[in-house]
Amino acid sequence: MMFRKLILILALPLVFSSAVMAESGEHYLKEGVVAFKEGRYQDAVAYFKRARDNGIATSNVSYNLGSSYYKMNEYRQARAAFIEAAKNTKFQKFSWYNLGLIERKLGNNDDAVKWFRKALTAEGNPKIDRLANQMIQILSPAEATTKSSPRDSKDSREISTPASKPSSSLKTSGDKFAALNTTLGYEEFVADLALDRTHIKRPKRIKSRKIRGGVQVALGNDDNVIDANNNSGSGLSSTYLESFGYVDIPLGQNFTLSGDIYNQRFPDVSSQDFRLFKLGIHYTHKVGSLRIAPAIIYGQSQFGSLDFQDIMDYRVTVSKRLGKGKKFLFRFRYSDIEDAQGSFTQYEGDRQQYRFEYKTRIALGKLRFRYQIETNDRANTVNRDYSPTRNDFRIRLKQKIFAGLTLSTEVQYRISSYDPISNTAAILAERGRERDDDRVRFKLDLSKKVAKDWRLGFRWVYTDNESTGVSAASDSSDSYSKNDVQIYAAWSF
């Protein structure tokens, strides 16, 4: 049965292939402009790149990338983008002027003057002529031209926000400026320009999105390894080696094939080794201001030397941006869980999760609130309930501190409620009584980017689980505390 479900996952891209090919990267371009207007320049860069990777390889995409990089002080990347945009004569005047600003930021005044002079040679908006000439007067007064009128000099330190339609030099079919409400000086004129297209012709050839993935390896120590057979503390301590790898392979423009492999080995307690493999299909679609992403994921796990579970996950995620740095997310997840070998039949059944997240930015960094309710309908046993209802609350703060370090702290409170088992033996053993597990978990992660795609880090997780409604003598393992520390290295591409 699981094999048939896996075949279904792999067949989904074929079923929807015609719909995928009909999509364009237009919405990524529009999302990039929105992100730019809200000051989310890193998000803007990501959207513009996705627009380019999805076939919108136009000069305004290159120009928008240059504008975004400029706002992020990534001047060399901005320079490359503007040089690319200038290959289109309609963008030359603005691009050459911006290249002059970039060279000035980099301290190359002579090169800056050359670009400003070049901007004067291109046809287009006379305001750029005035601004370029003023910059030449500042950097090299002897070389200033007289292309601007002296009465325009009162505007030398300030410009108005551009109009909502383009100047004549940039007026192409469907192009327009996304006007920004700024009061920046003329040297930041580049920041006022982010181009959108309301009508984009379907590209002749759709470019493939990039394959992305990563690997993480960690060495750690767990002072109370969790026994998966009872989901409680084993009382055993062990070092461990943990490895995780993932890859996302684009299939067309809206589908993605994902693969994940996780492996945790305990040299001192090999019976608690855990391995997990996942394969999934994800689809992303924009409906108005909502981003909807359904997915089907097949998972297979091993515990110790035994096959553990086969899981089919059906997920739907809906997200919406609420302004600068703010985002709301809802996710529904239904899991069909089967015992893979007959050794863990108590966990067979289904699980449903409803997750709500809110993300925002504060002075200290990025803040995330999360609430999730989970219900279970498992097989259980005659003596014990394995179908808890869980309410999970989390808050996380991620911030950049000193020396390029990133600090992430998270506090979690989870309460799990188990129903009683109406069984004489269970009642006598006091394991079938109604109980609640209150779990508090604190996570701390400190990491540093040491190369373009490499990150080194330290992680500490403290967990304290208090179980009420059971006999301490007969079920003490349900109440436990543990410390898990690790150092890790992560590489992504």
UniProtKB/TrEMBL annotation:
InterPro entries, per database record: Bact_OM_Channel_sf (IPR053713), TPR-like_helical_dom_sf (IPR011990), TPR_rpt (IPR019734)
Basic and acidic residues compositional bias, start-end: 149-158
Region named Disordered: 141-172
Stretches with biased composition (Polar residues): 159-172
Keywords for the protein's UniProt record, in alphabetical order: Signal
A Pfam family of this chain: TPR_16
Name of the protein this chain belongs to: Uncharacterized protein
Species assigned in the record: hydrothermal vent metagenome
